[in-house]
Amino acid sequence: MSFKILTLNNIAVAGLRRLPRDLYEVASEIGHPDGILVRSANMHAMDIPDSVKAIARAGAGVNNIPVDALTHRGIPVFNAPGANANAVKELVIAGMMLGARNICWAWDYVRELDGDDSAVSKAVEAGKKRYVGFELPGRTLGVVGLGAIGVEVANAAHGLGMKVVGYDPQLTVERAWQLSSGVEQAASLDDLFSRADIITLHVPLVDATRNLVNAERVGLMQAGGIVLNFARGGIVDEEAVLAAVDSGHLSAYVCDFPTNLTRNHPRVTALPHLGASTGEAEENCAIMAAENLREFLENGNIRRSVNFPESFLPRTPGQRLTIANLNVPNMVGQISTELAEAGLNIVDLLNKSRGDVAYTIVDVEGKASAATVEKISAIDGVLNVRAI
User: Fold this and answer.
1) Cα distance from N-terminal residue to C-terminal residue, the chain
2) Average pLDDT of the chain, as a whole number
3) 116-128 burial code (b ≥16 CB/10 A, e <16)
4) Alpha-carbon gap, residue 150 to 234, rounded angstroms
5) Closest CA to 109 of 126, 127, 97
6) Dist. CA 325–CA 383, nearest whole Å
7) CA angle 276, 277, 280 (to 5 degrees)
8) Dist. CA 181–CA 49, nearest whole Å
9) Percentage of residues of the chain with pLDDT beyond 70
10) How, if at all, do strands 382-387 and 319-326 pair?
């Protein structure tokens, strides 16, 4: 058994090393790939070969991948949640300090000074009052989204002496255990915005989060507040935020997604998408993506997928069948019937669902024939079948 992996970007060597050379052929140009490793390449217009069984992104966001189309083909999409969390957390804390202490605008002021050292010194003393900022302890940080990054940001801010309020209606038990007990829960987004001096965003860009930060919510914030966006550009209504900055209601906007509207604004610090741009984060993301892909291709287990349910079943002797299907009644019954008619005894079975799709892992004694696999594939609602 061997697999072909297509890489669409430069993937950190530390990740590629997780794919043993005796089992994997990895290249940026390869025919009939079993899997794809990607970072930022836009796959929406790509003709994804029928041979592809899974796609793994070496990062958290999957906006560059046609997830819905792949789901309908029964292809899981993996990401690397939390692998870049520390890198983003550090940049968010840095962005908070840049905004609170007016550092970028003060730096620009100094760089534009003229004259000898004496003149510069006088100008510094005369001008520094323009850049008076505020300290973080006692201020309230509102964290929207308490996934891997949001939790780390919340805990770090709490450690700096800030009051921290979080909001995430989909907070998992795992993340709740990781969250500092000092972080308060907001009843709603409006509640969070009304209590916050600083807002930081850690949610994906989907229809429900587009323009989540808008004029109404910004208006609820404390005067002189700061908005931080190190998540995705479309989550913030830039015109509304800039209007609040221009009016003085907000003191700053710090983001990782420059546009022509923001990049030259005097009270905006716009960075070139540096959130996960550390060597450590790139390696961590590549390792997690490669491990996700390998576990699926070799064992059919699904971990850290954005479109299929978490599904892990320890291997047993014999053959493993994996079936991706629509989440409809009697699917497991029909699969079991086909296996029984083929004289195959089921050793172990796992069935999980997520929204409109489901995933079944079946370990059988013996080996299913090509005809049996074809019969299971022909069941109405089955998206694809693999025999491992």
Assistant:
1) 9
2) 96
3) eeeeeeebeeeee
4) 18
5) 127
6) 5
7) 80
8) 48
9) 100
10) antiparallel
Q: Say what the pTM is.
A: 0.81
The token pair that represents 257 in the structure block: 């997604």
- Tell whether the torsion through CA atoms of 19, 21, 22 and 28 is positive or negative: positive
Digitized pLDDT (tens) for each residue of the chain, 388 residues in all: 799 999 999 999 999 999 999 999 999 999 999 999 999 999 999 999 999 999 999 988 898 999 999 999 999 999 998 899 999 999 999 999 999 999 999 999 999 999 999 999 999 999 999 999 999 999 999 999 999 999 999 999 999 999 999 999 999 999 999 999 999 999 999 999 999 999 999 998 889 999 999 999 999 999 999 999 999 999 999 999 999 999 999 999 999 999 999 999 999 999 999 998 999 999 999 999 999 999 999 999 999 999 999 999 999 999 999 999 999 999 999 999 999 999 999 999 999 999 999 999 999 999 999 999 999 999 999 999 999 9
What token pair was written down for 89?
């957390």
**Radius of gyration (C-alpha) of the chain in whole angstroms:** 25
Classified by CATH at the fold level, domain 309-388 comes out as Alpha-Beta Plaits (3.30.70)
Sequence length of the chain is: 388
- Asked if domains 1-84+276-308 and 85-270 share a fold, the reply is yes
Give yes or no for a contact between 244 and 250, defined as CB atoms under 8 angstroms apart.
Answer: yes
d(CA 318, CA 388): 9
Residue 1 CB partners (closer than 8 Å, separation 6+): 23, 298
Asked if residues 7 and 25 have their Cβ atoms less than 8 Å apart, the reply is: no
CATH code reported for the domain at 1-84+276-308: 3.40.50.720
User: Which residue's entry shows tokens 């029984």?
Assistant: 340
Question: What count of other Cβ atoms lies within 10 Å of the Cβ of residue 108?
Answer: 10
- Domain boundaries of the chain, sorted by first residue: 1-84+276-308, 85-270, 309-388
Structure token digits, residue 49: 């070969």
What is the CATH code of the structural domain delimited by 85-270? 3.40.50.720
Are 344 and 318 spatial neighbours (Cβ–Cβ below 8 Å)? no
